[in-house]
Design goal:
This protein is of the alpha+beta class and about 200 residues long. It has one domain. Helices cover about 30% and strands about 25% of the residues. Strands 1, 2, 3, 4, 6 and 7 form a six-stranded antiparallel beta sheet that branches. A two-stranded parallel sheet has the order 5-8. The chain is rod-shaped.
Length: about 200
Amino acid sequence: MPLGSGRGFSLLEAMVAVAMLACTVLAVTGIVSLAQGQTVRCIHEQQAQQVVANTVEDLRSLPFLRVGQAVAAGEGHADLMLTVFPHACISRNHDSAFYCPEGTPEWPAGTFVSSSPGPLGSLTTAATFVRSTPLGWVPLPEPLVGGFVADQATEVPGPALRVTVSLAWSEAGRACRTSITRVFTAAELPTGAVTRQAAWR
């Protein structure tokens, strides 16, 4: 068919045009879908970071240790110690809150781990008694921690806890996790609280 004859497009030309249009629509749809997935991931990550940060702030608001003070009904946990490190006794362990006398790839020996459902996945708190050294904070030896029970304690293993709060969730088949680690120290322990510092100084 000579150009300029005014007879229109051939069937082949129309099919090529439709194929090109379909490829363009598919590409744009894929890009939009990818952008939406990234947006949802970013929103979930921001939500997880906020949950973890709020949990750490809630822990910061608690006194380090109260000795001999009962918890009023509905008050929740009396202090940081009862909240993140209630005991160092295997016999008191259960599935969602347990003491690890031996180290694991995730936690050093002498760590108390608790987990609960979070808004996106599992919210985990891991607490370890630590001491300050010229090289930084190091975990106390497990024998100094073992047997500790916060609500019965007249002495504590040490006046510092390294606490890691993390939230783990799954996003499109991919494991995601965000965490914050803080060291909480007691500037001055209450009357009646004795630390086992002499054993590790």
